[in-house]
Amino acid sequence: MAGHSKWANIKRQKARVDAKKGSIFTKLSRAIIVAARNGLPDPDGNFQLRAAVDKAKAAGMPSENIERAIAKGSGNWSDDSPLEDIRYEGYGPGGVAVLIEAMTDNRNRTAAEVREAFSKTGGSLGETGCVSWMFRQKGVISLEVVPDEEALLLAVAEAGGDDLSTDGSQAEVYCDYTLLEQVATHLKKEGYQVQDVGIRWIPSNGVQVEDAETAKLVLNLMERLDNLDDVQNVYANFEIDEAVMESLV
């Protein structure tokens, strides 16, 4: 998954740039709304909300924006544009499976934007369920890279985690999503620096993208979808050879 891991690094770098420009605040605010809607509106009693708030604070989101998002999620703030969750699925260039989570106040607008992103890159938007069977939901905990991977593996096992991957700059721990808080809390107690936590869709198998032209189209699709304000998360099952990825970056 070297190429896919490099794409993850690019996304993290892009997120830092976007945060400086303020363009990521909409996505962060909507993540808070979802977390507050699905649990208690108190970060101390809602792990997902606490994680979303911590991420927003790290990006420099003003406190009043965070409080307003929590109020919207808990139903204590009304406006003329209620948000709803939507999931889109489709196939990208080279048969890559793509799963998209969005929040929108206008289904028609969002569907048109997502469909255009696929069509501009040679992919196609599909029906609900066409690719989701290739993914499974997992809890994912991102850590600062650690020098002793064996010690981390032991800590992950003790915490109830399932797996671990590293890419040289960051480690990711995978667990049953119902155990996310338990595993993250244990790792923090063990002294590991937790950068991010969340529930993600992890592909069960990957599609190998072997030529530079297809890889370029796949990454273009990922970027187009990521740049849509209504899109919260994009997941795909592509794997790009390291040499091909290096030729594009």
From TrEMBL:
Gene3D superfamilies: 1.10.10.200, 3.30.70.980
Domain TACO1/YebC-like second and third as annotated: residue spans: 84-238
Record localization: Cytoplasm
Main location: cytoplasm
Domain TACO1/YebC-like N-terminal: 5-76
Source taxon at top rank: Bacteria
Keywords attached to this entry: Cytoplasm, DNA-binding, Transcription, Transcription regulation
Entry's family note: Belongs to the TACO1 family.
NCBIfam families attached to this UniProt entry: PRK00110.1, PRK12378.1, YebC/PmpR family DNA-binding transcriptional regulator
Protein name: Probable transcriptional regulatory protein JX360_14425
Organism: Thermostichus vulcanus str. 'Rupite'
